[in-house]
């Protein structure tokens, strides 16, 4: 075990994590050059395109160090985005050390800090690596100062590297061997293996990526998954060098994979502990946590006949993504679809994109929303995902909404604007400090609901892209929220109702009914569009009673033109939906579902 080193690389997006990993694989000849492709570790197409890492891939390298000994280095990749921070902390739990990569031209950013703290919490040995020193604008001294002052790490032994040019790579490997401690553990103790990732394979079922803390595991052994209490027989164990390669056994301290004919990811959850069914450990490793989705949206096929295909596709994705949840949903405008739950906006975007791309389904995704907690007057608490889940106002004791602690790093010039944005989004100021005279760290507590409506885009545009953010969920807080119903000609239309803060209710209601007024064609009678909270009407607009005479524009007797227009109007009518006596065009529902209500 003394010759094993388990480590990961943590960094802010784009600071060069994947490039550095590639260089390490190259230098240790882990990948033959003809098989070497750029950024081996980012395997999914979408990851490669967006340049982000989502799924973890562990790799085993052999390295002959300057002391003449051969070491096994297990590199455990970590996802770079906050949505997946739970997976980050799991993969950190599988290591003894971390390379903290910081871009020499950018300095410490929001996720550098967040990831470094996760690593410190896990008690890892952290090796600071200043990357991109080949660039003329590199300021390694300034970055060293930031690492010491902002993160509080000793940076005197930081390594100066250019992953792109291959400068400083042997020093990185030597530092891993010398500074990261070997794993501890007892091969003879009862088996304890942490599942830090699981993937589903069509042919082999679930492949669990494990870090063995104690004991050993081999083919034929009966293993117990402690969270689900299920027992399976091991079919194969092995290592990633870098592709899956079977082996006799995996022993304490090592990182590898276990295949045991498990059919769903729910039975082999990330964070769970595997033990020996015949000689079980008395306690699981810390770390199992059920991850709950926090952002929801409706997904509907554009072509209604695609509904069964959509179900199949979501089920398939779920095989490899146990954080994704779904349930059937019907919408007045969009027909049959699914309400899906995600870990965050990126998780949602990626899922939608994969459905479109890998399964070739045209989709409408509705605007995202969060899950509220509603405390009823009888003391019960229900979870509400959409307006129709909310009971009558008289039955509600209080409503709670999810909050995040948002950290923003940005140039000091933009602080005023960023603070205004946070304030407008009901943010509660926490702190502001200067990292350098030009750079500021700003912290706010913000309702998640306000964040998921284009907060990041707004922030990017007011800071011209110079801000970086990170956030963590800090739980639910009581909030003065109301459900606003929209009534058309006296009939409530579920699809148009929404949840918002009482202070914003009037403004939002007004913008919604104004938009509807434009979208609902005039009918033979006057149509009232009202917004109400419970039985109290808070805003109203009227659509004047005048039949839209499409022929009015056609002076003269061009019969074909008249006929065409009449046909067009008829076609239009088919796309209408009757709500009571009123015809509402499909377009109105779509505009509402996808619209950003705050203009
Ligand atoms: N000049 C220079 N560019 C580098 C260096 N290392 C990485 N880059 C470039 O920086 C960009 C981001 O590098 P990646 O390795 O994809 O960054 P990453 O940290 O893996 O990004 P995520 O996977 O999203 O976390 C790429 O365009 C690299 O070519 C370096 O040492 N010097």
Automatic annotation (TrEMBL):
One of its GO terms (molecular function) is GTPase activity. It is a peripheral membrane protein. The keyword Metal-binding does not apply. Residues 2-184 form the Tr-type G domain. One of its GO terms (cellular component) is plasma membrane. Pfam families: EFG_C, EFG_III, GTP_EFTU, GTP_EFTU_D2, LepA_C. Keywords: Cell inner membrane, Cell membrane, GTP-binding, Hydrolase, Membrane, Nucleotide-binding, Protein biosynthesis. It comes from the Bacteria. It is found in: Cell inner membrane. It is an enzyme of class 3 (hydrolase). Coiled coil: none annotated. One of its GO terms (biological process) is positive regulation of translation. GTP binds at residues 14-19, 131-134. It catalyses: GTP + H2O = GDP + phosphate + H(+). Its EC number is 3.6.5.n1. Gene3D superfamilies: 3.30.70.240, Elongation factor 4, C-terminal domain, Elongation Factor G (Translational Gtpase), domain 3, P-loop containing nucleotide triphosphate hydrolases, Translation factors. InterPro entries: EF-4 (IPR006297), EFG_II (IPR041095), EFG_III/V (IPR035647), EFG_V-like (IPR000640), EFTu-like_2 (IPR004161), LepA_C_sf (IPR038363), LepA_CTD (IPR013842), LepA_IV (IPR035654). Required for accurate and efficient protein synthesis under certain stress conditions. May act as a fidelity factor of the translation reaction, by catalyzing a one-codon backward translocation of tRNAs on improperly translocated ribosomes. Back-translocation proceeds from a post-translocation (POST) complex to a pre-translocation (PRE) complex, thus giving elongation factor G a second chance to translocate the tRNAs correctly. Binds to ribosomes in a GTP-dependent manner. Belongs to the GTP-binding elongation factor family. LepA subfamily. This is Elongation factor 4. It comes from Acetomicrobium mobile (strain ATCC BAA-54 / DSM 13181 / JCM 12221 / NGA).
């Amino acid at each position: 075990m003394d010759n094993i080193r388990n480590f990961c690389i943590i960094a802010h997006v784009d600071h060069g994590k994947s490039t550095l990993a590639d260089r390490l694989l190259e230098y240790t000849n882990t990948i033959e050059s003809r098989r070497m492709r750029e950024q081996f570790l980012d395997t999914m197409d979408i990851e490669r395109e967006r340049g982000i890492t989502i799924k973890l891939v562990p790799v085993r390298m052999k390295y002959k160090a300057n002391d003449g000994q051969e070491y096994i280095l297990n590199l455990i990749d970590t996802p770079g985005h906050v949505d997946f921070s739970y997976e980050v902390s799991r993969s950190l739990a599988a290591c003894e050390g971390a390379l903290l990569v910081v871009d020499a031209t950018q300095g410490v950013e929001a996720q550098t800090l967040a990831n470094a703290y996760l690593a410190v919490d896990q008690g890892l040995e952290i090796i600071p690596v200043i990357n991109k020193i080949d660039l003329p604008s590199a300021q390694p001294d300034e970055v060293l100062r930031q690492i010491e002052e902002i993160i509080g790490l000793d940076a005197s032994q930081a390594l100066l590297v250019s992953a792109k040019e291959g400068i400083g790579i042997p020093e990185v490997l030597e530092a891993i061997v010398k500074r990261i401690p070997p794993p501890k553990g007892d091969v003879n103790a009862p088996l304890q293996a942490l599942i830090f990732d699981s993937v589903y394979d069509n042919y082999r079922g679930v492949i669990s990526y494990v870090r063995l803390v104690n004991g050993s595991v081999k083919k034929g052994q009966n293993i117990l998954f402690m969270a689900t209490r299920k027992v399976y027989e091991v079919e194969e164990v092995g290592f990633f060098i870098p592709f899956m390669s079977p082996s006799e056994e995996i022993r304490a301290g090592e990182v590898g994979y276990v295949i045991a004919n498990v059919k769903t990811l729910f039975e082999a959850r990330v964070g769970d502990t595997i033990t020996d069914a015949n000689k079980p450990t008395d306690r699981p490793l810390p770390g199992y946590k059920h991850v709950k989705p926090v952002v929801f949206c409706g997904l509907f096929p554009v072509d209604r006949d695609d509904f069964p295909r959509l179900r199949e596709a979501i089920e398939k994705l779920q095989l490899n993504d146990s954080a994704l949840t779904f349930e059937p949903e019907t919408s007045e405008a969009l027909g049959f679809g699914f309400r899906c739950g995600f870990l965050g906006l990126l998780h949602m975007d990626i899922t939608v994109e994969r459905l479109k791309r890998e399964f070739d389904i045209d989709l409408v995704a509705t605007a995202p929303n969060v899950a509220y907690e509603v405390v009823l007057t009888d003391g019960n608490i229900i979870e509400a995902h959409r307006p129709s889940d909310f009971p009558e106002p008289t039955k509600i004791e209080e409503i709670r909404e999810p909050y995040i602690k948002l950290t923003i790093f940005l140039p000091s010039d933009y602080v005023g604007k960023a603070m205004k944005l946070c304030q407008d989004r009901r943010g509660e100021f926490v702190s502001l400090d200067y990292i350098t005279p030009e750079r500021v760290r700003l912290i706010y507590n913000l309702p998640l609901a306000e964040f998921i409506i284009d907060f990041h885009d707004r922030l990017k545009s007011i800071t011209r892209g110079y801000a970086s953010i990170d956030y963590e969920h800090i739980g639910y807080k009581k909030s003065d929220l109301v459900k606003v119903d929209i009534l058309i000609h006296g009939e409530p239309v579920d699809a148009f109702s929404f949840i918002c803060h009482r202070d914003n209710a009037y403004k939002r209601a007004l913008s919604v009914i104004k938009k509807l007024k434009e979208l609902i064609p005039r009918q033979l009678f006057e149509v009232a569009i009202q917004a109400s909270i419970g039985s109290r009407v808070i805003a109203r607009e009227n659509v004047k009673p005048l039949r839209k005479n499409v022929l009015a524009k056609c002076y003269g007797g061009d019969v074909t033109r008249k006929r065409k227009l009449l046909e067009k109007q008829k076609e239009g009518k088919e796309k209408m939906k009757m709500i009571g006596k009123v015809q509402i065009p499909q377009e109105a529902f779509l505009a509402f579902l996808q619209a950003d209500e705050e203009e």
